[in-house]
Amino acid sequence: DDPTSIATISDEGLVTAVSLGEVVAIVTSEDSEFSASAEVEVTGIMVTEVSIDQETAELNVGETLQLTTTIVPEDATDQSITWSVDFPSAGKNQESTPEETATVDEEGLITAVSAGEVVVTAQSSNGSVAASLDVTVSNVAVTSVSIMETLSVNIGETGQLTATILPENATNQTVTWSLTEDDSSPETYATVDPETGVVTGISECDACGLALVVTTEDGGFTTYADLFIEYVSVTSITLSPSSFTLDPGETQQMTATILPTNATDQEVDWSLSYAGNLCDVPPIENFASISEDGIVTANASFEACSGINVVAASESGAGVSTTSNFTVNPILATSVEIVDSSDDPYPDKELTVFDSGCSVSVSLYIAVEPDDVTDGTVTWSVDDEMQATIDSNGTLDFSGPGTVRVTATSNDGSGLSDYLDVTFEGCI
């Protein structure tokens, strides 16, 4: 280390102190044959007195106070101060620490924590001198409490009021919430969290004498607000999907959207009805059914009378309902074939009829698959109506000998058909 950081010496032997520490001053003759030395100790200017700008202090819980110290002498080398807090009587049996009553930081800022008395001390860095002051911390008493005059809560929902305590800096801000009612059974209409004041609506209470009560822990001050528990009626229902089709055996989950979204009763009753008012048809359960959860199941094909309506009606009894229309798609034919009376197909698609007369009637039959096809009927036609005619029942009438091609076309829209070449040999 550089000794000159502690002290310097001039050619004339004048020593000047720079900082705390010890050095050796050396003097040497010009011919360097003789020398002498002396130990030099540089010491600081000691603090002789510390004082605080006030002797006592009274604070409310939560308040702060900045203390200022004065050090004597003013040019003392080490001006740092150590702050501490303690109880007034040393060794006093306390259930809490001094810091739970008040704290002091390294700059001398006191913060009041809880009611009580402490002593705050400022001590010089070497501990030789100190100054103290008595600090009394007091609670701020509650003088009143208030809340809004009314609170409205919907059934099944929650609401909350805020209690205003005066003065604003009152130490104990704790309150207890409760309900009161003319019949002394407020729990019929609502519940309240005693700590938070959150009210939950249970059943309708309009001007039934229900009140929300708040009471302060400090002083027992109390006030109340009229409490109304309201029923929110359903105004509309929409269904999704609004229209659809199903194949037999398929299902569709319906979704009902209720407005307003906070309506008290969100439940709906599901049912089915024919969309046409003049239909003379079997029970609707033959064609479709719906569960209590709104799942539609298609049982059999049904397209008549504008289809079937899904009906969703509010359970609240408000008379609000809506419908969604659907049809059950037909089961289409997969095979259409002209057969004989024994349901056997004709080999080579040919039939020859013999009769001695000059005219004859032939009954033709049709086989359609699958067995549960929705529409198993066909339309019959011949390619030469001058030779023969055929009615809707498949009765073919020849007016004379000859050959015609008979065609049977499915009526279900599947586009399937079959033919048979029929020859009449007669007039023998």
Report the helical percentage: under 10%
Averaging pLDDT over every residue, what do you get? 91
Rounded radius of gyration (Å): 54 Å
Report, as a whole number of angstroms, the end-to-end distance. Answer: 151 Å
Kindly estimate the percentage of residues that lie in beta strands according to DSSP.
Answer: over 45%
- Strand order within the widest sheet? 6-13-12-9
Characterize the main sheet.
4 strands, mixed
User: Regions with pLDDT < 50 over 5+ consecutive residues?
Assistant: none
Q: What is the general shape?
A: elongated
* Record field, number of beta strands: 40
How many DSSP H or I helices? 0
Which structural class do the helices and strands define?
mainly beta
Please outline the helices and strands:
Layout: E1 7-9, E2 15-17, E3 21-28, E4 35-42, E5 49-52, E6 56-60, E7 64-66, E8 69-72, E9 81-86, E10 102-104, E11 109-112, E12 116-124, E13 130-138, E14 144-146, E15 150-154, E16 158-159, E17 164-166, E18 175-180, E19 190-192, E20 199-201, E21 211-216, E22 222-230, E23 236-240, E24 243-246, E25 251-253, E26 255-259, E27 268-274, E28 288-290, E29 295-298, E30 308-314, E31 321-328, E32 335-339, E33 350-354, E34 360-363, E35 365-369, E36 378-382, E37 388-390, E38 395-398, E39 402-410, E40 417-425
Parallel strand pairs: 6-13, 15-22, 24-31, 33-40
Antiparallel strand pairs: 1-2, 3-4, 5-8, 7-11, 9-12, 10-11, 12-13, 14-17, 16-20, 18-21, 19-20, 21-22, 23-26, 25-29, 27-30, 28-29, 30-31, 32-35, 34-38, 36-39, 37-38, 39-40
